[in-house]
Amino acid sequence: MKWLALAALMLAAPSLAQQPPAWFAPSFLDIREDLAEAAKEGRRLMVYFHQDGCPYCKRLVEVNFRDAAIVGKMRRHFMTIDVNIFGDREVTWTDGRRMPEKQFAALMKVRFTPTLVFFDDRGEIAHRIDGYLPPEEFLAELESLL
Description:
Blueprint: H1 2-12, H2 31-40, E1 44-50, H3 55-62, H4 68-77, E2 78-84, E3 90-92, E4 98-100, H5 101-107, E5 115-119, E6 125-130, H6 135-144
Parallel strand pairs: 1-2
Antiparallel strand pairs: 1-5, 3-4, 5-6
């Protein structure tokens, strides 16, 4: 019976594959700093909104974020950070307001996951991808931003 409980616990635990890839930028979640850093590097900021246990987030990480063409384009043109829509890490918005991740997700009108929000250099939303797109469609969306 113990093995059954252990198996259930392991299945309920968030998969490591859902964690953002190592090539995501480290961030203190100060969006002002992230925008400035991205601009300094000639890139734009992209925020990946996710939640633990989300099957489409898992697919995005395991498929799209491992596709060489997608990863190359993202690393070259975007500084990418992650936000958990139910998380409590503190985010600082462009106007200096501080809030937990979950409040920031609400401010960005994230309704489901995954959601990717692309910002221009002024901190305005330039584009968003709501939901999972297969690699070919995802790559086309990225290319439309360049």
